[in-house]
Amino acid sequence: MTIHNKIRFGELDNPMNKTLYSLLVVGHFTLCTLAMIWPGALIANRVEPTMLGLPFLFAWYILWMLVLFLGMWAAFVVRPAGGRDE
Amino acid sequence: MNDAMIVTAITLAYLGIVLWVGLRARGRGGSGLEGYVAGGRHVGVVILFFILGAEVFSAFAFLGTPGWAYQHGAPAFYILAYLSLVPITIWVLGPRVAALGRERGYLTQGDMLADHYRSRPLGVLAGIIGVMALVPYLTIQIAGAGLLFQAATDGLVPFWLGALLAFLVVAAYVFCSGLSGIGWTNLVQGIMMIAIAWFLGLAIPEHLFGGVGEMFARLQIEAPEHLVLPGATNMGWGYFSTAILVSAFGGAMWPHMFMKFYSADSGRTLRRVSVFYPLYAYLLVPLLFIGFAGALVFAEMPLKRPDTVLLKLVMEVAAFPPWVVGLMLSGALAAAMSTGANLAHTAAVVLVRDVLGTTLMRDVGERATVAATRWSVLALSLIAYGLALFNPASLVMILLTAYGLIVQLLPMVLGALFFPLLNRRSAMAGAIAGSLSFLLLEFGFGSPLGWHAGVWGMLANLAVLGLCQALLRERGAARVLD
């Protein structure tokens, strides 16, 4: 079975409640935005500890870019019930 | 054969390849207007990714990102933040815009606004704002290409000739192939830019300091203020945060973004692209390394123009062989040209369809409209080239202004997509109030709290919009007027 079929199978078998889906997506977007501006970035505003040689604030942005991507990817794969964006 | 000639030869060869790829794509999207403008609405995910991505990698990103990291330090992370937040707007608006476009045959932002609000002047207004914002943006790309050529060839190719060469290539393939030409060349240019950016970003710290980690360790000792906010130039949290918000949520209001929404073959394709969009920000990370390297190298004698930090490091400090300089120039030119192609194409379509099409050229057939669009590509590129010859430095200022203005279209667009009760008079009054207060703060009084003036413009916009909406409803006239 191809990956595509598995995704479609999951979608038909177990569609996510639409309100819950929207809440999760909005929550994810809000969290990622606030993490990158004031006040979220305030708690990461330091050099130590360095991560892979990068200052902590730099690494913080690198990390949240990944979190944003992973969350959006999950939202893309798990579609809401009755989705109409096709 | 001296170094400057090797650099020039490599770059000319690259321009030749781009021109060949662009012209070869001719005719793939069908011959009608819809084919020329929106790729026949069947542009798949890979090509759409590179078309959208090419807008990210402009000459400004390639030279300005290291420039910011060098000059300001940590506030340059603003670029990472806003780029990775842009897809939120694409995710939310994109599928709806694409569906409406397919259903009603929209090709531009003005089409949608004029039709939804049943107001032709509103479409013309959006068109004029769009063209006025796009031409300076295009000028920066042309000026960037000229500066790059001049610096990398030691003046063998002067500013005017370098700018002319790069944009003749762009105008030629956009003129002949429309959006298909842009898609295929951006595939080539995107790969080129990414490879060059990563090579330089890793090679320069390695060459000068023995590695990226070692470079940051030295920065922590010698210039620690570069590594945390508010950075070396004491940029406030307020400006940093509001600049991210205005850029991230206003970015999708640019007409060229909007038109790419229409070209997607489905809303699903747009969402797939927006999922991968945060990854574009990763591509800029090595350009930040270059800027931080410059902060150490040029600590004693600061550069007059921070935007030249990448060029100075490659040409004077790291002393790479000429073929590397040639490839770097090609990569940076790729950035300028791919963005320029998109901008020229969009400005021409908006000018002909939204501004001329509803006024002077109302009864003109489709064939003449396509022809007018093509000639507008040439005319607008030429105007931008003329502006570039005058004064490239002050244009960054014009672009920032254009940005603050284009954001004022956001409430109007959101209204058309999600709030059917929004009245056209409220929308128009809000946009005008927002634009005027933005201009007043930007050029007159200065922005309160040191925030980005676009935010205050947006607040004025929303306040007036809400007030008008309430007044109209009170008079019971809201529905009658519509």
Protein model, in words:
Chain A has a domain at 29-81. Chain A is elongated, with a radius of gyration of 17 Å. In chain A, helix 2 runs antiparallel to helix 3 (56-77). Chain A has three helices and no strands. By secondary structure, chain A is mainly α. Chain B has 482 residues and is mainly α. Chain B has two domains: 3-398, Sodium/glucose cotransporter, CATH 1.20.1730.10; 421-482, no CATH class. Helices cover 78% and strands 0% of the residues of chain B. Chain B has 21 helices and no strands. Chain B has helices at residues 3-24, 33-38, 45-56, 59-71, 77-104, 109-116, 120-152, 159-209, 212-222, 237-250, 255-263, 267-276, 278-297, 309-317, 322-356, 366-390, 395-406, 410-418, 424-445, 453-474, 478-481. In chain B, 59% of the residues are buried.
Number of helices of chain B: 21
Provide the CATH superfamily of the largest domain in chain B: Sodium/glucose cotransporter
Radius of gyration of chain A, in angstroms, nearest whole number: 17 Å
What is the total tally of β strands of chain A? 0
Give the CA-CA distance, first to last residue of chain A: 23 Å
Keywords (chain B): Cell membrane, Ion transport, Membrane, Sodium, Sodium transport, Symport, Transmembrane, Transmembrane helix, Transport
Catalytic activity (chain B): L-proline(in) + Na(+)(in) = L-proline(out) + Na(+)(out)
Protein name (chain B): Solute:Na+ symporter, SSS family
Subcellular location (chain B): Cell membrane
